[in-house]
Amino acid sequence: MSWELTARDLPDLARGATLLGTGGGGDPYIGRRLVEQVLGDRTITMLDPDDLADDLFVVPTAQMGAPTVMVEKIPAGTEPLLALRTLERHLGRTADATMPIECGGINSMIPLVVAAETGLPVVDADGMGRAFPELSMETFAVYGVHGSPLALAGERGEQVVIDTGDDDRQMEWLARAVTIRLGGVGHIAEYAMTGADVRRTAVPRTVSMALDLGRAIRLAREEKRSPFDAIADTLARTPYSHVRELFVGKVRDVERRTTDGFAQGSARIVPLSSGDGSSQDERVCELEFQNENVVARVDGRTVALVPDLVCVLEAETAEPITTEGLRYGQRVRVLGISTPAMMRTPAALDAFGPQAFGLTEEFVPVEELALQDAALP
Amino acid sequence: MSWELTARDLPDLARGATLLGTGGGGDPYIGRRLVEQVLGDRTITMLDPDDLADDLFVVPTAQMGAPTVMVEKIPAGTEPLLALRTLERHLGRTADATMPIECGGINSMIPLVVAAETGLPVVDADGMGRAFPELSMETFAVYGVHGSPLALAGERGEQVVIDTGDDDRQMEWLARAVTIRLGGVGHIAEYAMTGADVRRTAVPRTVSMALDLGRAIRLAREEKRSPFDAIADTLARTPYSHVRELFVGKVRDVERRTTDGFAQGSARIVPLSSGDGSSQDERVCELEFQNENVVARVDGRTVALVPDLVCVLEAETAEPITTEGLRYGQRVRVLGISTPAMMRTPAALDAFGPQAFGLTEEFVPVEELALQDAALP
After folding, report:
1. Model confidence at B105: pLDDT above 70
2. pLDDT tens digit string along A65-101?
3. What is the ipTM of this complex?
4. How many contacts does A have with B, using Cβ atoms within 8 A?
5. Cβ(B96)–Cβ(B51) under 8 Å?
6. What torsion, rounded to 10 degrees, do the Cα atoms B164, B166, B169, B174 define?
7. Residue B224 covered by a domain
8. Residue B273 CB neighbour total at 10 angstroms
9. Interface residues of chain B, partner chain A, Cβ below 8 Å
10. S-Me-THD-like C-terminal domain: which residues (chains A, B) (predicted)?
11. In whole angstroms, how far apart are CA B228 and each of B105, B312, B334?
């Protein structure tokens, strides 16, 4: 069933999208302000994927670039629509709706900017079910809808169309080169598809899930309940139903670099009771990220890994923290969250499993890693 | 008047185009073989710019990339036509003719490949009047025709359209990024224009000039005359009328690197009588190149600089030598050749004068540098 999104929903949506961003995806705050400016008192119609006409023409819109750059390079707000119009012109067909390619981070907001500017509805679904660093890491592509042709718009009105046929990795490779030369951020329209394609290839109802998560955290805080229990209760009603607390501690080290248009690095978290780090037998949680958190290890043992979600949240308020937001001494809880079955098939793992991030280990679901852990002596 | 080009003309055209390539522009040999394969016994109609209908639609075609890569990465031959078709589709208009953007080097041949494949005529003119390393270094752009939108095709069928409005440098910047990620070579269609635009902005009859130069060198060799006299006699009938021998000697050092998609470096030439280079007071000619030779200095004094032509030729046969072809010990003559007035206006020098290549010195025509030289004590 379709529903209406208002500007009042945006802070909750941003909070939930940051959680689903698993450390990356860009800060939705900037996108949220863009939506608020344009939307005013109007509403955005959100379409349930089950209700879409088979031949509805859906053109997803998004931002691409390193989140570390996105924080400093604020879009004018007109670029995503320019990307949409460029792709429409190229395809000779007008969009009936837009959709996120990514429900985590700023890309939860970019389609809403387009919707507020045009009155187009937004499909409540996405192609990542979280955030991922590359345009080819999409359930759309895994299940047969290709990203190409892609349209890319820059802040000075640059318009680029990239057509690589069914080679989504080459599309990503070329679009990334253009984005880097645009200063690190570009706005895109890609993965144009029909309503029937959406039902077959998208992760459904991820925008409403982000909104529910953000709202549940806020309400729990207001009512002095545990926001972490609220997260678990909310996710229990979705295909992201397993939640595990992986570690509680404080941030000891963060190492970050922006390389080839990506934010890469690692973080170490130590117990709250830890001293100056000189103890050799101290427990430690290590996170690796490539824009998003890709793996969490505790004392060297993997406890959650991509495509499952590794989320760092403020230890008391459950405010999600991005990798750019990680600071020495922060008290945090690290959660592992299971992803839906369609994101764990062999084809899906080929596109965005551990090997796609250069890890050598095989994917093991976070709920199985927890069982292995419990079975240890 | 229009004229017919045959496969038998191609070796002469390639020789002349290499001379006009001033060390860069890519080796026309590869392009020549592509034309021969497709053309067979047919001919290509070459259109004189003065005869073009005002509304004739001309779409230039070319290759872009570092010449050092072009030598090793041989195109399939279908890429330039794919670039043309991509731009036609984008513009919704079919080309009546193609044209070189650059008469020096391999880009003298690329439009002929397209013509042989399609039967389209080729306009006998170009936008560089020689070879230059960047797509924005065009008399077309200097006199008001912009390169954008540009279509770019890769060897695996990739199609990219780049529209930067009237910003030709941004077009070059983005197209270069894509070309680098395609492996160093891309094929392009750009600077689409009308017949009236060609007459206003192109350097006229540069294809026939290249052909005349190549033929004159060959005939002089066959008839045991000086090919250097033949070059001077041929150029005397064109707007490139001043030719000066800058140095005769042998190649001592060549330093080359391929950086950011360009072949950059320098060469040192010493007198034929020179020994092992240990003499401190020995005369020396130094060349700097960025794909093309940009400046020649003799004993530290500038004797020719861009946009005038600095050409290195084999000392006896006058075979032009590209920067990739420079070898230790080669006996060479270095010529300085004047460029037409339209390539030396302030606007033209802004686009492709010495400062555009990072040199600090002002442009001085090669014929004036010769007079200054003669006036020395």
Report:
1. yes
2. 876 565 566 667 789 999 999 999 999 999 999 999 9
3. 0.85
4. 64
5. no
6. 10
7. no
8. 9
9. 86, 90, 156-165, 167, 170, 173-174, 177-178, 180-182
10. 167-366
11. 20, 12, 11
**3-state class percentages of chain A: helix first, strand second, coil last, to nearest 5:** 35, 25, 40
As to burial, measured by CB atoms within 10 angstroms (0-12 exposed, 13-18 middle, 19+ buried), residue A171 is buried
Question: Collapsing DSSP states into helix, strand and coil, what is residue A85?
Answer: helix
Q: What's the CATH code of the domain at A130?
A: 3.40.1610.10
**Domain assignment of residue B178, yes or no:** yes
pLDDT tens across A185-230, in order?
Answer: 899 999 999 999 999 999 999 999 999 999 999 999 999 999 999 9
Q: Is residue B199 part of a domain?
A: yes
Do B99 and B192 share a domain, yes or no? Answer: yes
Number of domains in chain B: 2
Write out the residue range of the structural domain in which residue B365 sits. Answer: 238-375
Q: Examine the domain organization and report whether B27 and B151 are in the same domain.
A: yes
User: Are A178 and A325 members of one domain?
Assistant: no
Query: What's the rounded Cα separation, in Å, for the pair B145 and A372?
Result: 68
What CATH number has the domain bearing residue A295?
2.40.390
Q: Do B177 and A180 touch (CB under 8 A)?
A: yes
Do A167 and A248 sit in the same domain of this protein? no
- Whether residue A149 is preceded by a cis peptide bond, meaning omega within 30 degrees of 0, is yes
CB-hemisphere CA count at 13 Å for A141? 26
Q: Using CB atoms within 10 Å of the CB of residue B270, give its burial: 0 to 12 exposed, 13 to 18 middle, 19+ buried.
A: buried
